[in-house]
Amino acid sequence: MNDTPQPLWASETFWKKTAIWVTAGSFIVLVVLTFDSLSQTKAGSKRVPAYSVINKKIDYQYQPQLHKSIPVIGENEFLFGKEFTEEEAFQLVDLGKKTSQAKNCMNCHTLLGNGAYFAPDLTKAWLDQGWLSTQLREDAMVKFLVDPEKNARTFGSNRKMPNLDITEEEAKGLVAFLKWMSSIDTNGFPYNFKTIYAEQ
Amino acid sequence: MSTNGLDGVMHSAINICTRSQARWAEFTQWVNLDSNNLSDGQKLAVKYFTVAVILFFAQILFGMLAATQFIYPGFLYEILDFNVNRMVHINAMVVWMLYGFIGCVYWLLEDESKTEIVGLKLGNIAFWVLTGAVTLVVLVYLLVQIGPGKTSSLWLINEGREYIEAPRWADIGIVIVMLIFFYNVVATFSKGQWSGIAGVLTLDLVALAGLYVAGMFYMTNITHDQYWWWWVIHLWVEATWEVLVGVIMAWSLMKLLGVKRKIVQTWLYIEVALMFGSGILGLGHHYFWIGTPEYWFTIGGFFSALEPIPLVAMVVHAVYDSGSHAFKNGNHPALAWIIAHAFGNFFGAGVWGFMHTLPQINLYTHGTQWSASHGHLAFFGAYATINIAFFYLAIQHWRGNVWMSGQSENAWRWKWALGLLNVGVVGMTIALLIAGYEQSFIERAVEGSTWAGYFSAQNHPSFQSAMIWRWFFGLLTFAGLILLIWDLMTIGKTETRKAQEIISE
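ok -> structure tokens follow
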């Protein structure tokens, strides 16, 4: 290399060291935050409720002092007329989650806002006003999932969900998964969402 | 079945084989490429490039099918539904870009290490294993599509996680192939010589391969699922891929323009510092709404706002070096695509990403066509362009390092391909941006994100016309791609002059 002294900002070794330190430093911070985030979002934590939350009434209510909506867990409101133990609830939600992956839901829908944009977001699908009545909701959801073509809900768009060979058991799992997902504290996303309870 | 019938089948099968062999022979004669012009590493590289181009074609084809379904929802209903087309569209993209990157690395490996590639045989086997696996995965995507809600579906058919849908068996195969690739790289540099470029490349490949493993687990808890899923997606495309591109760009600026090694390497370190310094914690912009704590608003917002800085640095670097060498270079189409890369990366990844990255606006734009707009320009601008630049570099050497310039015979082809592809993608980006604005206002801000709100935004005339414009610009992109493929097969065929010598100072 040349003999003339170089300013620091033009020195290869200086930038090499900077690159290493910056990368290592950022990565360590990320790892620390990952441990914290994962422990704050375990199923059964304040932000991500236990799977047995499917036994309860779940709502998503706007809090004027916080300027956002938060999930509100209420009284008992059994799913399919049954109170699930923690283990049973886990089994059912797990079946629903696996079904959501095996049927490739995410390449039409978004879940927690992530996925494709051909069909509506599922984050608060359980609470959507489109189900019309809270009494008929779970049956309507199961029927729709098992035979979406016959029970099509296109909102005037002509976009119909295809038949994905979802069994009744899988459909119940999906409903449980959607109900559980609607209880996750998503920091106010989606904003200004009016739930099925808000109308009644 | 009667023996006669079987004989008939055999007979016609043999017939088809002979005929396709003859066609293939005709085709290779027409293309007229001489592999004796290539080193062993380069021969392996062009195999990767060939598959990359085929997958690029598949990407655009299935993108067009999905785009058509936005306009005619009944198109291919229950035959190839939107989710299948969209999955093939984005998977073909991820895989062709990886093929391109692997090809680029094999291409520069021997030149950079000043020795012959180590473990060539293994590298070749890995190529065929990977290509066989990719073919099988795509066939299963198209023919089987979905499975029952069981673990076996995730292992054999489709994992149902956007971008990394490949079933688990394929994940394991990909990791093994990546390890072989990594062995080729490290063993070759160790035998020959190390350099700054070699060091950055090796460490980046460790991170790139290691991160993939974070996406190989099933989790019931969707918050944890998406937490790790973003480790793969974000830390690939907004960190390790960008650094890989920095490496490829550094090497090609030396080769194309003759920029000094000391300059490109210093720049490379600066880019690594800026890229990882902003990109690693910039991951936080994916953690605003998935259930993770609120501190990610601050961390994700702040660091992702810094993410465009390294991309500005890359533009300055590429444009300054091109200017200071008065654009004197040995391969005009390749340099044009490098410049397209510098700007595309800055606008697509940098500007389009920044526009909706802060949580205050992302609350409304998250999960709308905004993301699709950003995705189209970023993946094309940052990654498709640099791969195409390398295709031109490869074809030039494959033809025996012939002259390739703006004045060559049929130069209109590469110029029009460049123009059509860029105009096509920018047009789609703008159309999707309009759709995204409309969705953010009507579905999100006004109607509060209910299903009725979603559909009232989808049914809105401005959304519908945006989808038609997107389709039209998609078609221009497709036309550009076909022209590009034709050009790659024919450019330099009749050229006898050698490329001008570029020597790195």
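The mean pLDDT of chain A is 94.
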